[in-house]
Amino acid sequence: MSFTTFFDEPGPRARRRHRLLEIATCVAVLVIGLWVIVELSAHDVFSASAWAPFSQWGMWRLLGAGLLNNLTAAVTAMILSMVVGCLLAFGLLSPSWVLRRFCMGYTAIFNCIPVLLLLFFTSLMLPTWGVQLPDFWFLVIALTLYSGAVIGDLIRAGVQALPHGQSEAATALGFSPIRTIWLVLLPQALRSMSPAMVSQMVIIFKGTALAYVLGGYLELLHTATLIGSYYSQSALQALSVAAILFMLVNIGLSLLAGAIERREQRRFGTAATSDEAAQQAAMA
Amino acid sequence: MSFLLPHLPEFGLGILLTLALIALGWAGAMVLGIVLAALRASPIRTLRTIASIYVLVFRNIPLPVQMVLFVFGLPLLGIQYSLFTSAAIVLIIYTAPFISETLRSGLNTVSRGELEASRALGFSPIGSMQRLILPQAFASMIQPMGNVLIMMVKNTSVAAVVGVAELTFTADKIAIDEVQPFIMLGGAAVAYIVIGLLLTRLVTALDRKVAFSR
């Protein structure tokens, strides 16, 4: 969507006006930017002493280890929630009314509960039920409970978007329902859902920063606050660096999702999945 | 259940704060999102670039990180708001890009040919926008907007990370104080589910009401 989609192509006078406005806004942005930089340097944000801790190699190793911890948790949660999602999709597609209702209830409920609440729940309840785990697993279980519901719905949508002839042909060849889903429908559905899956990975990755509240798992945000409390003059810098690292990884993953989607479109001539669930996952 | 009674006002206040965060966050994010979408459609390149950079940056930094940066980082620069205000501001800042993207994709669902046809019939740009484009775009936007709204409802809980005494925080605190995690956190979950399902119902009803026969 752009201006010229909705309005007429600007005439020569309007174009001159736009050019002038462009220059004016450019100048305004530069002035505001300069003012912000001056204001920040008045608070010693750019001073050498505040950035001194970051000249050490060990500091970047710490931050990198934190980021790696986020990624480990995200990948583990992603794999587990694929498993949960496949099971849920079997339930959602099953002919049994009870099983279908149960799985629909699960998706509806876990779509509404915040991950942070799930995280408090796992970290408080599992120990009282006699399950002693490191904080890493509390995080992974909380993320899996939530993300499994989303992925289950995604797989269901992907399978239902396939032409009906696929499952009919498999049944005609004598496949059992489970084998039909597992060998015929699921591989095709998973392929067309890959962009949405990468987007879900971004959501999970963002969610791993919540482990900050547990304090027992050294993910990037927690690492940055610890650095900030140790080098108190660099607290803001540490947090900003963490934010930028998070941002870079997420942008990388989004670019990957875009690339996969374009490749799918080139190879199969269609947008990935046009179902609502897919859009929802791609958006959040 | 007697342990619950003295904590009832606290729990109610938590729910109220969550609802206030939802209302404030949604209103602010709507305004900022519409402004962003308008900037991204503007003929002036600088404004388009600013809006794109904003969306890229604030969509890709996790909400807890933004929350911590805003609440613990900015006071070091002398910028300080109350906890609740900060949480609301961060929610607005974080949600606005999603709203602007939804608006953009909603407008994109209207095919260009329809616009051209209406212009050929003699509608002005504003007229065709208001009679043809916007009604269709709104109809296709309601469901994704509802999804963004529910995402924001869940995101209000992240305010607990910095210590805003909303529903999640209060439930966790009472759960630890009274050693009743299952009941307290379960109660909070039920409250979120009720809010979420009510909103889902509302969105579905609205969607059915404005649905176009396409």
How is this structure best described in words?
With 284 residues, chain A is mainly alpha-helical. Chain A has twelve helices and no strands. Chain B is mainly alpha-helical and 214 residues long. Helix content of chain B is 79%, strand content 0%. Chain B is built from eight helices and no strands. The longest helix of chain B has 34 residues, at 8-41. Classes of the chains: A mainly alpha (284), B mainly alpha (214). At the A-B interface, α1, α2, α5, α6 and α9 of A face α2, α3, α4, α6 and α7 of B.
Largest sheet entry of chain A: none
Structural class of chain B: mainly alpha
Biggest interface and residues each? A-B, 58 and 67 residues
Number of helices of chain A: 12
Helix percent of chain B reads over 70%
The H-and-E topology of chain A, N to C, reads as HHHHHHHHHHHH
Mean pLDDT across residues of chain A = 86
Q: What is the SS-derived class of chain A?
A: mainly alpha
Shape of chain A: flat
Give the amount of beta strand of chain A, in percent.
under 5%
Overall 3D form of chain B: flat
Mean pLDDT of chain B: 89
Could you list the spans of chain B in which at least 5 consecutive residues all have pLDDT below 50?
none
Q: Find the count of extended strands of chain A (DSSP E, 2+ residues).
A: 0
Would you report the number of β strands of chain B?
0
Q: Using only CA atoms, what is the Rg of chain B? A: 21 Å
